[in-house]
Every structure is written in C-alpha cells, then in structure tokens.
UniProtKB/TrEMBL annotation:
SUPFAM superfamilies cross-referenced by the UniProt entry: UDP-Glycosyltransferase/glycogen phosphorylase
All residue ranges annotated as the Glycosyl transferase family domain in the record: 215-367
Descriptive protein name: Glycosyltransferase involved in cell wall biosynthesis
Keyword terms: Transferase
InterPro entries given in the database record: Glyco_trans_1
Gene3D superfamilies recorded: Glycogen Phosphorylase B (3.40.50.2000)
GO function term, MF aspect, one: glycosyltransferase activity
Amino acid sequence: MKLKILFVIDSLNSGGAEKSLISLLSLFDYDKYDVDLLMFSRKGLYLSLLPKEVNVLKAPETLGKHQRINLKHLYLKLGNSLSLRNPFYKKFLHSSQINWKWKSQGIKQLDEKYDIAIAYSQGFPTYFVAEKVESTKKYCWINTDYKKASYNKKFDTQFYYQYNNIVAVSESNKEIFIKEMPLAKDKTLVIYDIISPKLVRTMSKQPVAYRDNYKGLKILTIGRLVDVKGYDLAIKACYQLKKEGLNFKWYSIGEGELKPKLEKLVKDYGLEDTFIFLGPHQNPYNYLKMCDIYVQPSRFEGFGMAIAEAKILHKPIISTNFPVVYNQIEDGKNGIIVSMNPKEISQGIKKIITNKELNEKIIYNLKHESMGTENEIYKLYSLIES
C-alpha cells in the first residue's frame, strides 16, 4: 500500500524553495507514494511544471467562506490587518508569525489523515502542518538563515517541538538553526536542495534573445526583488563600474515588492540603459547560459540555488560573503567572494573582467567540479521510510 504524503508551501512563485520543490517532485517515486500538495496561493511561475501525478489540494477553508461574515471572522480579518501595522508586533514578530497569530483560529483542520506531512518552508507552512494537519510523522524544512530572517524563537518553539525531524538545506543552515533552537539539536539533519545538471543544461539550450540584442559584456543576477537579495548593492556597484568607464549591461531576472523602489534607484543613478529588469522567467537558464558573469549580491541565503545553477553552466561568479556561500564557492578557485558593499562587488567584477588568467582558471575548475545533488532524494526516502 502506498504511503500518503502531503507537502505544504506558500506558493510556487519564483524562489529557491519553490524551484527546489519542483525539482524534488519531478524525481519522486510515484509508484511508492501518493503525493498531495497544498499551497495557500495556487498561482505561481512554476505551477505548470508540477508533475501530473501530484494532487493539488484546494486551499483550506476559513471561517466565513460559506456563511455570513460573523463577528469572530470580522475580528480575525481586522485583527490581522491591524497587527501587521502594529509597531509592537512588527518589532518582536516575523510577518509570518503575525499572520498565523491572527489567522490560525479561522483556518479549518484538514480532513485527510497522512502518513507523512512536510512543511517545505519555515513560517506559515510550518505552523499550518504543526497545528492543522493530522499525520503519523511530520517534517519541516529550513531553507533560510534562520537568525537573519528574524523569527521570534520563543513563538516558534511550540511548533518545532511538534516535528519528528527538521531538515536544513546546508550544514551552515543547520548550525545556525540549532544554535537558535537548541531543542532541535538531535532531530535536525541536512538534505541539500535538489539540482539536476542535466535539466539545467537541457533547458539552457532553448533559444532566447536578451530584449535589446546587446552584443557586449553581460552581467546577470537572478532572485526575488526583496531586501535580502541585495539589489540595492548591485545597482550601486553597477554605478561605480560605469563611472570607471567599463562597457557592459547588468540584467536582473525576478519579481518582488521592491521593484518600484529599485527602478527609482536605477533612475536616480542614471542607469536606465545599463541595469535592466527582465521580470520573472520560468526558464532563466538560457539567459544564464548567454551571460558572461553571474553576480549574487545577497545579504543572506539558505542555499544559493542560482549560484549552483551558474556553476553548472560554468559561469564566473561573484558573490557576497553570506555564511552559506562558503559551502559552494572557494574564493579564487571556482568564483570570487566579496564583502557586502557596492565597492567590493564592483571590484570583484572588475577583477574577473580584467584578469583573463583568473577568469579562465575559474571556468576550468567549474568544468571539472561535480555539481549534481539528485542523490539527495534518497535521504528523503530514508527519512520517510524510517
């Protein structure tokens, strides 16, 4: 008899966790497991990439959906809206924690009972699986730097206590998490995000043209337009390089809440013809294949998914020095690691442009590095079957 497994994630919009889940589900053994997927938003860039074997559930019902809005429902709606603006809550709680605090009473328990329930990201999915899903075993994923993401540890303790195991996507993530959440020390393990070099290389062969058909040096950054991805640092680094007379264009693939602010920053620096937002793309690999340099200016990452993909396509990489990057990049060997400021980022890029020997050395080393993590799925199978 097949085991019944539930995965829960916020959405399948652009992002490393979302892309990782798609890769995992594309390799899953559906002869052995029945898989349900629950998303709180059924929209997203990667929705069309879901394997047909995955059963997508409707979002859980909330109070008032099939009835008149009663006072309790009104209280929950108003409470959530007001609390997100409340400086006291914003100071001490992560936005996901505020959301759960006010919405949880109005969310119904799932009717189905599962053998395994998996919260595939921290925050709302973790709280939901802990309190609203009945299953024999429960696992949750940590795919961010838990400390820098500013979750309130006291609030989270009650939820992580309910999980059989907690999965970090890197050794660095694990160390940070168990330091912040000591109760999880003996039940936290590492399963790396699943990346398939074959899939990346195949998708990179699809034809594409940068919108402007620019033939010169192309720099690329992939990631959501949010603060942690450090686009403001990238734009300022771009300005410094242009000021030094270098000819290039810097492209960004991604979407996010900071787009208007970042577009204004580009305009303020007079970079409209140099720093170009391409928007979200389901397949960024053909753009990645055609770029000359990949830059990751993040303030923190759980696992540098885009870095791993750039490595597969043998692109010279400049990355800021967030802790987990040292699991992927050895400075001067298969990329360059710089401090988290515009000057250092621009100097790292300049080093790759001007030092042909270093550029060729990095590309050579990347071509001879083992890249795939498909075998990580067997760690998950082992966890499920244990």
